[in-house]
């Protein structure tokens, strides 16, 4: 007997990486050496002070119970100070809500603000979780187009047309943008805030990459005048502090909005383990030199990723922000997915097809910088060796 699944799962598939990494593991189990340049999970350690705070705290008998649903006051204050120092954004303690990663925030926000039948605007290409969370809430995801010709930035004319169709309640932006590595500009944030206020939309910036290989001072949507009226920002320690597995993030914005999110969250989890919260406080105090050292490692890997992409005949922009390089596959490749599968099965190199981020990513691929330089070099060597035999599918 098979009990049918809920209707809401009809349009939601298992996450791409959940499926594809199982395939990668199966190849590894057969003894194949696979260079995984797929997922963006940092392979470097958090700062020593972070790990020390975790272990110190975990040794106490009193740190293992349930915790406040909205985190400890000390954690909220540490996040508040971090935003003040880094992004020059003044927040009250009630304008900070710690989360178990920003991905859960995407789900909570969708549950807190969307009714069945509502529409949301999401970037194409963009992080797949925005659409999945909206669908689970019974809402419809409508894509706006980002493309190379427009510098991967939203276009006002298109947004006007989409909103004119009616029913749009919320808009997601994600700058610095994943997967294209595009930086935000204050000017873009300004017109987006004016636009969304004019149309009564909630605007959310998902901002987990602003400390990775950035060239200018990190920018927050909330640093723009009047942003708090209709904007929220998600942030995360996953990438910026090498803490992806720890599941620590935050949502920031007006307290009324956070209260709605907490109404969802407090019914799902029972607070974050106290040692993780205490270690997060330590992590948020990582020095500038700690961040620079991490970025120096990524910068070296970025150079190697560029060499790898040149070997593959791909074109790409230099100086992308974040821990990926987004690149266009050569014109003669007719089927990008088959081409990447050939790279995986023949050369043992796993790269992410751009189309998992939307139709605008169809001619692109994404290389993760979360692998040691030696592995990137090995990938380059494998391509060089195989170049004569690699058939373009
Ligand atoms: C754009 C974007 N948002 C959110 C996340 C999720 O981050 P977290 O680990 O904080 O849940 C990712 C992770 O890959 C991401 O790329």
TrEMBL record:
Transmembrane segments annotated in the record for this chain: none
Gene3D superfamilies: Aspartate Aminotransferase, domain 1 (3.90.1150.10), Type I PLP-dependent aspartate aminotransferase-like (Major domain) (3.40.640.10)
Cofactor requirements of the protein: pyridoxal 5'-phosphate
Domain of life, source organism: Bacteria
Domain Aminotransferase class I/classII large: 33-383
Single GO molecular function: pyridoxal phosphate binding
Family: Belongs to the class-I pyridoxal-phosphate-dependent aminotransferase family.
UniProt-recorded name of the protein: Aminotransferase
Lineage, opening ranks: Bacteria, Pseudomonadati, Bacteroidota, Cytophagia, Cytophagales
